Fold this protein.
Amino acid sequence: MKGDAARGKVTAAVCLGCHRLGDQGVDYGPNLTTYAKQQSLETLVLNISQPSNNISHGFEGTRVVLDDGMVITGMVLSSGDPLMIKSMGGLVQSIPRNRIKEEKHLDRSLMFTPAQMGLTEQGVADIATYLRSL
């Protein structure tokens, strides 16, 4: 499937809630401007379409359950006391260890699947083509 960079630029707006792209977006997932320069088009398509198959180092997810039942999912920045975790949108939270009931590393990516983001196969191809054009 051939991607279209112009369409991909528009479609890539869905990525900005978690990723930096140039001077836009949120510092949560890998910086897509830098990441795209290091990957082939095929690798970009695969990593967008199947995000749990290749999680970038440092972006592994953790699920934390607090003593009141609240669940926080994100990337652990510091596992000391307090635990520091960065959640979607770039929100960093500090959690005292005595409030943590359970802490479990996720076996999946924190990134949504294309279907969860409303992306079609063509949308994935367009985004990957756009990212490679940067």
